[in-house]
UniProtKB/TrEMBL annotation:
It comes from Rhizobium tropici. Belongs to the short-chain dehydrogenases/reductases (SDR) family. InterPro entries: NAD(P)-bd_dom_sf, Sc_DH/Rdtase_CS, SDR_fam. It holds the Pfam family adh_short_C2. GO terms for biological process: carbohydrate metabolic process. This is SDR family oxidoreductase.
């Protein structure tokens, strides 16, 4: 028995949505370094430049252009990969959007629908399309990007649509895990705290919020995207062979308080 080998992904084929930057890009690197062949899904080729540059390290990285809200496109990519004998055995549902600071009474229909479309519909469309082939193959691992916002309600900024979308991701994770366990497909999620990525750092209003967030965090710091990718790698690997339907907090202790 080699415990180190359990973290290897040689022969696996991983699809990472939104794998072009930040947490998604780190997931691409983590899974590729472990030996998986990767297909990144991004909306534009320019967004995937850094991911494709990882080929220089000898990694097998491919790109498909698509928007996770486009269920027909996700189905077409899944079918194309399966028809070519390269059906995904790992899916990381990373693509997501954030929006905060809007009180619920001011959230527009468009705000709400867009949040649900990307953060929950997109996760379901991809899980359904890529997961169908995993079910047929009787093996696979799906890792969803949930959030501590699916567990707690952030303060001081209101962000009900985001929080609800991530709570839905968590329950989708449990529901599909229960359903697909008998087919050899594991479904888990990570629930990160605030991570230093464009989603958080590009928002001007967050500068004043950060000290409040850190005061609420036992470890007193935000996270780096690589720290999330490590947990994703673990859940995708056979080191987590007994884990399904789990929401793994990667949150510097935030949810302890
Ligand atoms: P970023 O905004 O930095 O990156 C998101 C990536 O997803 C981008 O590459 C983006 O591409 C892509 N994307 C967005 N919408 C779509 C779409 N409709 N179809 C395909 N790709 C899309 O986010 P993070 O790296 O910070 O977050 C990644 C995930 O982690 C998200 O699900 C997020 O909710 C979750 N998370 C993040 C936390 C944080 O503090 N950063 C905390 C907890 C969870 P494009 O350039 O086209 O927009």
């Amino acid at each position: 028995m080699s415990y180190q080998k359990k973290f290897r992904l040689d022969g696996e084929r991983a699809v990472v949505t939104g794998g072009g930057r930040a947490i998604g890009l780190c997931c691409v690197e983590a899974l590729a370094e472990a030996g998986a062949a990767i297909v990144v899904i991004e909306r534009a080729e320019a967004d995937a430049r850094e991911a494709l540059a990882l080929r220089e390290k000898g990694y097998d990285i491919d790109l498909r252009i698509g928007d996770v809200t486009d269920s027909a496109r996700m189905e077409a990519i899944a079918t194309e990969l399966a028809d070519g004998g390269r059906a995904a055995t790992i899916l990381v549902n990373n693509a997501g959007i954030g929006q905060s600071g809007i009180p619920s009474q001011d959230v527009t229909d468009a705000d709400w629908l867009r949040m649900m479309d990307v953060n929950i519909n997109g996760v379901f469309w991809c899980s359904r399309s890529f997961g169908r082939h995993m079910v047929a193959m009787k093996r696979g691992a799906i890792v969803n990007l949930g959030s501590m916002s699916g567990i707690i309600c952030n303060r001081p900024q209101p962000q009900t649509p985001y929080n609800v979308s991530k709570a839905a991701v968590h329950h989708l994770t449990r529901s599909m895990a229960a359903e697909w366990a008998e087919h050899g497909v594991r479904v888990n999620a990570v629930a990160p705290t605030y991570i230093e990525t464009p989603m958080v750092m590009a928002v001007e209003a967050n500068r004043d919020r950060i000290p409040i967030w850190l005061a609420d965090t036992p470890m007193g710091r935000m996270g780096a995207p690589e720290e999330v990718a490590s947990a994703v790698l673990f859940l995708a690997s056979s080191a987590a062979s007994l884990m399904t339907g789990t929401i793994v907090n990667v949150d510097a202790g935030f949810t302890c308080w």
